[in-house]
C-alpha cells in the first residue's frame, strides 16, 4: 500500500493520523496520506509567510533555475506519477502519462512566459503633469492557497503552483481527497530538489473536516481553486477579503446547426462527451439540434459510442469507472429520471458498481434533470429544438457558463451564433476543451470567476507596484 506524508517547511509530517484513498477500479484501498490537524495547517501557512519575502527577493532567473531542478525530477518520475494517478482516479494509464507530459510542457512554457512579464512606464504629460515618470511592475501577492480537483490532479495542480512560485509567491497546496496520493507523492520530489524551505507546502486530509480551516486562514493572499460549485461558493464566503480565481462546474452544450459534416461532428462530440468517462468540467454535456439533423446524427453517434471500450484504466479503455459509487448513483439517477419522463435510451444504460457504460439519450426535454444538471459521467442527452434561437435560449438559461461548441460549415452563422452564447469560451467545429494551455480559460455565472491560462495565471498571482520618479 502506498503511504505518503504531507510536507511543511520541507519536513515530512507524520502525526499518526491517516486518510485512506480508494482505488475506483478495485474499490479497495490504494494508499493513505497524512490527515493533518488544524495546528499542522496553521504551521504550513506560517512557514509559507515566513519564507515568502526571501523567495521573492531572489532574481527571477534564479527562481526559475531552482524550479527547473524540481521539474527535472518530475520528468524522471513521470511513469510513477502516471501509475499513481491511474490507481487513485481510474484514468487510463495512457491518459495519465499524457497529463504528466502536458504538465511538463506547461511548466517550461511558464518559465519562458514569466520572463516576458515586463514592467511598463509612462509619463504624466497627457494629464498635464510634467517631470514625472511612473514605472509599474508586477510583484508577488504573497501566500497562495492552491486547491486542485480529482480529475486532473497533476495538471491542474501545477497550472496553479508553478505560476505562483515563479513570480515569487509561496504556496500551500491542498489536493482533492481523490488525488491526494499524487499530491503527497510530490513531497518527496520537493525534498530531493532541495527547494528553499517553506516556499511549497503540501497539506492533506479530509476536506469536510479541514476545508474551512484551510480556506479561512488569515495568511492567505489569494486562493486558486478548481472543483465543485458548492465548495467554490463556500470559499467565497470564507475568503471574502481574499483574491479568488475559481473554476467550477459546467453544462457545456454542443449546438449542431447543419448536417454538412456529421461524421466529423460526431467524432468531436463523442471525444468531448466521453473522454475520461465524462468527468471533465469542459465535457460536452448536452447536444442541441433540430429534429431533421438529430435523425441523421443519432445513428452515427450510436455506432461510434458502441465502439468505445469499457473496462480497466490499466487496459487503456475509453470508459473507466467513475470516481466512486456515490457519483455513479447520481449519474444513474439522472438517466432514470429522463427515462421515466419519456426520454429514449439509444445505447448504454448499463452499470457494474461505479463502471457505467457510455449512454446516449434521445428526446430529452427541458423538464428533465439531465437537461440542466451536470452529471460528471459518461452520459450524452440529445435535446431536439425548432430553431437556432431556441438553442441559444436553452444554452443561456443554464446556471453555468463555462464553454460551448457550435458545429456549422457557414462561418458567418457560426460566429454570429457564438456571439450570443453566454459562456467563457465558444468552440467552432471542435469539442469544448481547456487547451491549448496558453489560451485564457474562464467561466462565468456558476462556472467560476477570474481567468486562468499560463500568462493569465502569472498576472492573477501578482499585483502592480508603481514607483513614480519626480525630477
Fold and architecture overview:
It is a single chain. The chain folds into two domains: 2-248 and 447-470, Aldehyde Dehydrogenase, Chain A, domain 1; 252-428, Aldehyde Dehydrogenase, Chain A, domain 2, CATH 3.40.309. It is 39% helix and 25% strand. The protein has 14 helices and 27 strands. A seven-stranded mixed β-sheet has the order 15-18-19-14-13-21-22, with helices on both faces. Strands 10-9-8-11-12-25 form a six-stranded mixed β-sheet, sandwiched between helices. Strands 1-5-4 form a three-stranded mixed β-sheet. β13, α9 and β14 (284-290) form a beta-alpha-beta unit. α3 packs antiparallel against α6 and α9 packs across α10 (291-305).
Q: In terms of topology, how is this protein built?
A:
Elements lengths: L1 E3 L1 E3 L2 E3 L4 E6 L4 E7 L3 H20 L2 H17 L1 H12 L3 H22 L5 E4 L8 E9 L2 E5 L7 H12 L3 E5 L5 H14 L6 E3 L4 H9 L6 E5 L2 H10 L4 E5 L4 E5 L5 H13 L9 E7 H15 L19 H16 L3 E4 L3 E2 L2 E2 L2 E4 L16 E7 L2 H9 L3 E2 L1 E5 L3 H8 L6 E4 L12 E2 L1 E2 L2 E2 L1 E2 L1 H7 L1 E9 L1
Parallel strand pairs: 1-5, 8-9, 8-11, 9-10, 11-12, 13-14, 13-21, 14-19, 18-19, 21-22
Antiparallel strand pairs: 2-3, 4-5, 6-7, 7-27, 12-25, 15-18, 16-17, 20-24, 23-26
Helix pairs in contact: 2-4, 2-6, 3-4, 3-6, 4-5, 5-14, 9-10
Organism: Spiroplasma taiwanense CT-1
Protein name: Glyceraldehyde-3-phosphate dehydrogenase
Family: Belongs to the aldehyde dehydrogenase family.
Amino acid at each position: 500500500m502506498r503511504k505518503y506524508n504531507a510536507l511543511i517547511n520541507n519536513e515530512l509530517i507524520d502525526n499518526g493520523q491517516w486518510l485512506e484513498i480508494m482505488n475506483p477500479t478495485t474499490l479497495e484501498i490504494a494508499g493513505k496520506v497524512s490527515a493533518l490537524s488544524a495546528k499542522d495547517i496553521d504551521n504550513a501557512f506560517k512557514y509559507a509567510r515566513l519564507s515568502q519575502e526571501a523567495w521573492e527577493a531572489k532574481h527571477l532567473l534564479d527562481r526559475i533555475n531552482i524550479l527547473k531542478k524540481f521539474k527535472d525530477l518530475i520528468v524522471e518520475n513521470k511513469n510513477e506519477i502516471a501509475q499513481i494517478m491511474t490507481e487513485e482516479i481510474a484514468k487510463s494509464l495512457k491518459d495519465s502519462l499524457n497529463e504528466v507530459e502536458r504538465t511538463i510542457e506547461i511548466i517550461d512554457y511558464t518559465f519562458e512566459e514569466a520572463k516576458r512579464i515586463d514592467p511598463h512606464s509612462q509619463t504624466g504629460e497627457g494629464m498635464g503633469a510634467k517631470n514625472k515618470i511612473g514605472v509599474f511592475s508586477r510583484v508577488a501577492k504573497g501566500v497562495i492557497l492552491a486547491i486542485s480537483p480529482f480529475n486532473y490532479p497533476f495538471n491542474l495542480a501545477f497550472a496553479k503552483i508553478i505560476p505562483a512560485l515563479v513570480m515569487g509567491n509561496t504556496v500551500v497546496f491542498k489536493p482533492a481527497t481523490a488525488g491526494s496520493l499524487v499530491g503527497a507523492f510530490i513531497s518527496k520530489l520537493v525534498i530531493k530538489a532541495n527547494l528553499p524551505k517553506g516556499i511549497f507546502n503540501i497539506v492533506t486530509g479530509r476536506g469536510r473536516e479541514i476545508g474551512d480551516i484551510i480556506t479561512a486562514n488569515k495568511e492567505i493572499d489569494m486562493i486558486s481553486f478548481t472543483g465543485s460549485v458548492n465548495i467554490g461558493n463556500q470559499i467565497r464566503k470564507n475568503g471574502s477579503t481574499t483574491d479568488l480565481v475559481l473554476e467550477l462546474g459546467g453544462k457545456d452544450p454542443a449546438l449542431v446547426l447543419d448536417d454538412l459534416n456529421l461524421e466529423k461532428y460526431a467524432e468531436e462530440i463523442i471525444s468531448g462527451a466521453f473522454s475520461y468517462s465524462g468527468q471533465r468540467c469542459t465535457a460536452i454535456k448536452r447536444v442541441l439540434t433540430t429534429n431533421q439533423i438529430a435523425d441523421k446524427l443519432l445513428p452515427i453517434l450510436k455506432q461510434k459510442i458502441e465502439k468505445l471500450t469499457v473496462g480497466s484504466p490499466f487496459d487503456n479503455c475509453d470508459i473507466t469507472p467513475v470516481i466512486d459509487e456515490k457519483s455513479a448513483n447520481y449519474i444513474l439517477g439522472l438517466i432514470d429520471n429522463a427515462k421515466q419522463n419519456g426520454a429514449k435510451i439509444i445505447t448504454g444504460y448499463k452499470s457494474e458498481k461505479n463502471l457505467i457504460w457510455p449512454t446516449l439519450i434521445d428526446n430529452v426535454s427541458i423538464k428533465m434533470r439531465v437537461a440542466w444538471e451536470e452529471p460528471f459521467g459518461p452520459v450524452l442527452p440529445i435535446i431536439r429544438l425548432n430553431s437556432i434561437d431556441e438553442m441559444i435560449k436553452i444554452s443561456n438559461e443554464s446556471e453555468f457558463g463555462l464553454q460551448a461548441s457550435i458545429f456549422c460549415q457557414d462561418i458567418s452563422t457560426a460566429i454570429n451564433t457564438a456571439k450570443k452564447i453566454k459562456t467563457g469560451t465558444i468552440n467552432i467545429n471542435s469539442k469544448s476543451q481547456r487547451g491549448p494551455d496558453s489560451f485564457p480559460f474562464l467561466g462565468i455565472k456558476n462556472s467560476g470567476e477570474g481567468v486562468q491560462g499560463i500568462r493569465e495565471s502569472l498576472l492573477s498571482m501578482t499585483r502592480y507596484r508603481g514607483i513614480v520618479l519626480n525630477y
